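User: Second chain of the day. Same drill as before.
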Amino acid sequence: MGSNDSELLVDLFPWLKEYKDGTIERTAGFEVVPPGLDPETNVLSKDIVIIPESDVSARIYRPIFVPNDQKLPLAVYYHGGAFCVASPASPNYHTSLNMLVAEANIVVVSVGYRLAPEHPLPTAYEDSWASLQWVASHKEEEDGNNETWIKDYVDLDQVYLVGDSAGANIAHHLALRIKDSDLSQKLKIVGIGMIHSYFWGTDPIGSEVTDRVRKELVDKWWLYVCPSDKGCDDPLINPFADGSPDLAGLACHRILVIVAEKDILKDRGRFYYDKLVKSEWKGKAEIMETEGEGHVFYIFNPESDKAKSLFKRLAAFLNQGK
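Assistant: Same format as last time:
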């Protein structure tokens, strides 16, 4: 592994370093913990391969006790990490999802999509789309997948997409893609939980105007994982750039947007919510702001009172029914 600074090609602080010999050294989000029974929450988890051809995996969670006659909502969760770090096995995600499953009494499939730069965008979106196709296959009586935790414990008419940061961005794009696809006949998405969404744009808005250091950092992150000729106004990162799909095409009827006061991405989240409310989309939008906290604070401090409030609000959203 490269250690000489002269061999360094890219320093994508705080996520990773890329060396001239092609070595990628992740400096964040590389830690992993095993699945199993969490005694604090009484939540079970296990790792599964969901797309053997590409080795896309997931960590699936359920409460340890589910009555035989009860079917639970399913949240398909997409983790953050700027599209280039983290996984469902990351300790912070594992702890947070145990807490969410316990609070909401749901099943969660936490998707391990492949990461940039080894797998440049749009790979993460394609892997995430394939994960939804995998979930939908459990509705088929024949030739479907047979993950018992989905077959036995999930109400497939109560499916939600949930994600934080890059994962919230993924959830948005999946909900747009579903509407005009064959998948819309198999899978009805009830709602989307979008936490600290990773949306961006070339022209600064809100606090980005004065916070130039963080603006430049986020610019750099996006241009690294998606070297597009449209830069930070690529429709993948800017949902309101030229060529972006209309929000009316979102295939769900409820969306919860969660932002944090000290997050550089908060103004994009608020802007998304405002646009949603004014759009032709026929659903109901809600917004929650956490005061005094930064980006994905609940991942780093899941035991805090504000994190628990976020889990409660998200749990209530996931339990509103069809």
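The longest helix spans residues 91-104.

User: Great, on to the next one.
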